[in-house]
Amino acid sequence: MDIFQFFYLFHTNDLLLRIVKKILFLLTFSLLFGCANNKVETNPKLIVLISVDQMRGDYLETFNSQFEGGLLDFYTNGAFYTNTRHNHAITTTAAGHATIATGFFPSHHGIVTNTVYNRELGYSHYSIEDSTVNFIGIDSCSLNKVSAKRLMKSSFGDILKQHNENSKTYSVALKDRASILMGGKNANRAFWFDVASTQMVSTDYYKEEFPKWVQNYKADSVMSTAIHHGWKLDPAFATLSSTNSDSFSREKGSFKPWFPHTIESFDTNRIRQHEVGSFMWNTPFGDEYVLNFGYNIISHEELGKDENCDILTIGLSAADIIGHHFGPDSYEVLDYYNKLDKYLADFMSKVNTQVGKENVVYILTSDHGVAPMPEVLAGRGLDAKRIENEKYDTDILAIDLKLQQKYNLDSSCILRANYNGVEPHFLYLNEKGIDSIDFVNSLQHELSNLDYIQETFSFFELNSEQSNKEYFEQMKNSHSNDYGVFVKILGKENYLIDMRENGTTHGTPYPYDTHVPLIFLGRGIPAHKNSDKSYTVDIAPTILSILKIEPKTPFDGRILTLELSSK
């Protein structure tokens, strides 16, 4: 039969026509189903983003010789972007986590720092406060009422749920701002820690029913063995040459400067009640509890169990408290990361067993870094200094008096001052007929004359398009006309301004505060190290790229090249 005879038979034989149509339908269905399956197979079923609060970008290299668990897995087998920075100046927890989650700078997502000076209201408040919500899943709770209401951009989890309503997103951390802001505006639920009850709590901002298992998962019982034994320096690891002695005087925080750290060794002037909950906040065991809780979310809520990708974000907040008290060169920070290495290995092993290693993508990063103790640097011959509260207040008062004299004023012309900068008393200046621009210029000049101030930035400058000042771009990325003092200050590198006598902090655009780790580990992501400049605003668009989701609006960040494969 030639081809012409076949087509003639095809058109004249009804039975043959039906058979051919049936075959074509089955072939088409098979091809479409196969393509869909191929698409699903190349997507992860679970994304787990872990942000270690205050984890500096150099820690993985500094401590790497001692790792043998989860951190070694990230370091060895992940796509490690070694030159990742926060590209905003006010490097705080709320701003950093909102940036990681949304792919936008604080100037665009609206969360510029932890506690903000509200210019319209004339007072400071917590950046995520929300008096309209109520706590659920607990009989009573005295924590701040908070939500993601003030977050102006969607998280990558929110965008995933917009594309697939069957996907689930959860978030957990000791800190409310870490959990809430990484979870986004439409998470199934975010959980954070109540020190009084030692359980995770949440609010009715989230519409999903509060899980009953959470009420029984309390740290005072789950972590009872660790609480009983206390925090001891792990003898299995050598003390690195980069660390201080175990009794550096400036390390004093909630504990004495030396190991072991127990409930009995709490500084009673700082910790007067809820000692078990406070012990979780101040030791690595708090973050072990959070990771265990995160695994229970995966298990109880069945994340990663179907073809709809789910998301879990985890904030490890105890790392920040430890770092503030003891500093980056301490035995305590070293021991924290030795323990975290083990905690992550255990967590990832359980998750891989539960969901399938081939179905999970992990991301490791941080909301900010931390400054070295200036006394440590000074001991090494570097220019570093601690400017304590009393010194800073005295200097601001002297500037105030000098400006009063210059402008012939009879009362204070400075409304408020803190480590972020200075707010002129504009209402008073206006009443006296003082030109605001001239006064701000004079104030900036006087502040710049202080030997610990590197630079100042006024609202006038930050609302302009460009400036020759160093760190202008980062300052602009942290700027909001609604929040913050009018004249921002930047202290000299390695100087801590308006500080207590002990500990250290963060919040500047200097590398020790902005350089953070960024590693992608999991299905189809080959191990490699990339030293090209990258930013934390790149995280959200890159995660969505892994999920083959194209957002409706562009991010501040870009998609990082992960060299994805389908294996």
Fold and architecture overview:
This protein is of the alpha/beta class and 567 residues long. The N terminus is likely disordered. 49% of the residues are buried. The protein contains 23 helices and 20 strands. It has a 10-stranded mixed sheet, sandwiched between helices. Strand 4 and strand 5 form a beta hairpin. It is globular, with a radius of gyration of 27 Å. It has 3 domains: 39 residues; 309 residues, Alkaline Phosphatase, subunit A (3-Layer(aba) Sandwich); 121 residues, 2-Layer Sandwich (Gyrase A, domain 2).
Number of domains: 3
- The CA-CA distance between the termini, in Å, is 46 Å
Arithmetic mean pLDDT: 91
Low-confidence stretches: 1-41
Largest sheet: 10 strands, mixed
CATH top level label of the largest domain: Alpha Beta
CATH architecture of the largest domain: 3-Layer(aba) Sandwich
In CATH terms, what is the fold-level topology of the largest domain?
Alkaline Phosphatase, subunit A
Output the radius of gyration: 27 Å
Q: What structural class do the secondary elements suggest? A: alpha/beta
Strand content: 15-25%
User: Can you list the strand order of the major beta sheet?
Assistant: 6-9-8-7-10-1-11-18-2-19
What is the CATH H-level superfamily of the largest domain? Alkaline Phosphatase, subunit A
* Total number of beta strands: 20
Helix content: 25-40%
Shape: globular
The tally of helices reads 23
